[in-house]
Automatic annotation (TrEMBL):
Alphabetized PANTHER family for the sequence: METHIONYL-TRNA FORMYLTRANSFERASE (PTHR11138), METHIONYL-TRNA FORMYLTRANSFERASE, MITOCHONDRIAL (PTHR11138:SF5)
Protein name as it appears in the record: Methionyl-tRNA formyltransferase, mitochondrial
Pfam family, one: Formyl_trans_C
SUPFAM superfamilies per UniProt: FMT C-terminal domain-like, Formyltransferase
Gene Ontology molecular functions: methionyl-tRNA formyltransferase activity
UniProt-listed Enzyme Commission number(s): 2.1.2.9
Domain spans labelled Formyl transferase C-terminal: 242-349
Signal peptide (from-to): none
Lineage summary: Eukaryota, Viridiplantae, Streptophyta, Embryophyta, Tracheophyta
Main EC class the enzyme belongs to: transferase
Length: 415
């Protein structure tokens, strides 16, 4: 048994006067909460508040969260939002655990010393092994922001918004070894607005999930929830894999609504980025990278100017997309600058033109070479288009060389 485990046993046997001072504490069941980011706070708050009511049937015995992260090149250590909120609300520091992995033997030993009867997770961010799941007799219940079995995985809200769903929800489900596949105790549906972004929807779903959890805790702790929970239909399951940074790039060779949905889904992190072509007053093209913050979408009946010209109207940039659709960009950000509205961005161009495709026919080779950045060649189609243009240029030169060789005029060739 670890030193901390022995200390915890003494704490619970003698009573933590500073925190567990209720006379009914001995009748309360121990709950351990696991969560880490900002979206976990609604669940933590309701558990803390409910556990402090004298008539509460449970007490919050411990909190488990991700280890502190280092910022400013390691000079500053930042606790997770859950750890910070718990401390701000007077929760004992020695009852906040921050293991690197939930399967660490020292942590498992400390958890057993707490005698938890139920564990609750909400965006904890760590895989729970069988030796963890076997400890609480009433199981581990997860607050999951989707209507299971839909969107099992690390990014259910983001993937749902990316798919453009009109309805989603939050589920309370028992945790099993298979990812988000346990029996569902209860769920609540939520209509999805066309313009809500992932951070706002996440907060709304976890807020509803927190209320749903408090309502269901009595049935979970008396065991009846296990009998009413229904198994998921695996044939209807969809996945919500973790978002990768390279997914943030968008191509305007899609329907504008698809791009709009991606902007909403990836708001916050990793964001949505695009490359535009900036034409200066002399007609020289330059690559411009932008981060798209807020958008709308619309149909366009007629185009003004070239089909790939980006225009400005009604306070937004109008970027033509496929299928006669148009992406309206209301807010954006360029590298090294703050988020700005489309009006300020457009005024800053000072007459320069914008196009929505970086690689245009007719652009000379001397454009590609000085602007080539291998780290930014994320989109395969951009790379292929560039290589085709370079190949065409050298084939043209080769044809001239061959033709003049045949004419015996090699000495007169000028490059």
């Amino acid at each position: 048994m670890s030193l901390k485990a022995r200390s915890l046993r003494r704490s619970f046997c003698c009573g933590n006067v500073a925190y567990f001072s209720s006379a009914a504490a001995s009748k309360q069941k121990n709950i351990v909460f696991l969560g880490s980011p900002q979206v976990s706070l609604p669940v933590l708050d309701v558990l803390l508040d409910a556990s402090r009511v004298p008539s509460s049937i449970f007490r919050l015995a411990a909190i488990v969260t991700q280890p502190p992260s280092r910022r400013d090149r390691g000079r500053k250590v930042i606790s997770s939002p859950v750890a910070q909120r718990a401390l701000d609300k007077g929760f004992p520091h020695d009852l906040i655990f921050t293991p690197e992995r939930a399967g660490e033997e020292s942590f498992i030993s400390d958890l057993r010393a707490l005698n938890p009867e139920l564990c609750i997770t909400a965006a904890y961010g760590n895989i729970l092994p069988s030796k963890f799941l076997d400890i609480p007799p009433y199981g581990t219940v997860n607050v999951h922001p989707s209507l299971l079995p839909l969107y099992r995985g690390a990014a259910p809200v983001q993937r749902a918004l990316q798919d453009g769903v009109e309805e989603t929800g939050v589920s309370l489900a028992y945790t099993v070894r298979a990812l988000d596949a346990g029996p569902v105790i209860s769920h609540e549906k939520v209509e999805v607005d066309d313009y809500i972004k992932a951070p706002e929807l996440l907060l709304e779903l976890f807020d509803k999930g927190a209320k749903l959890l408090i309502h269901e805790i009595p049935s979970i702790l008396d065991g009846s929830a296990k009998y009413k929970a229904h198994a998921q239909d695996d044939s209807k399951a969809t996945s919500a894999p973790k978002i990768k940074p390279e997914e943030s790039w968008v191509s305007f060779e899609q329907d504008a609504k698809q791009i709009h949905n991606k902007v909403r889904a990836f708001a916050g992190w990793p964001g949505t980025r695009a490359r535009l072509q900036l034409i200066d007053g002399k007609g020289n093209p330059n690559a411009l990278e932008i981060k798209i913050i807020t958008t709308r979408f619309c149909k366009i009946s007629e185009t003004k100017g070239d089909e790939d010209d980006i225009l400005f109207d009604g306070g937004s940039l109008l970027i033509p997309c496929v299928g006669s659709t148009c992406l309206e960009v209301l807010e954006l950000q360029i590298p090294g600058k703050r988020v700005m509205n489309a009006v300020d961005f457009w005024n800053g161009l000072r007459g320069q033109k914008l196009k929505n495709r970086l690689h245009q026919k007719g652009i000379a080779l001397d454009y590609y070479l000085p602007h080539l950045n291998w780290k930014n060649l994320i989109r395969l189609e951009d790379f292929v288009l560039m290589m085709l243009d370079i190949s065409c240029f050298f084939l043209f030169v080769l044809e001239i060389v061959v033709m003049r060789l045949r004419l015996g005029q090699l000495s007169k060739i000028a490059f």
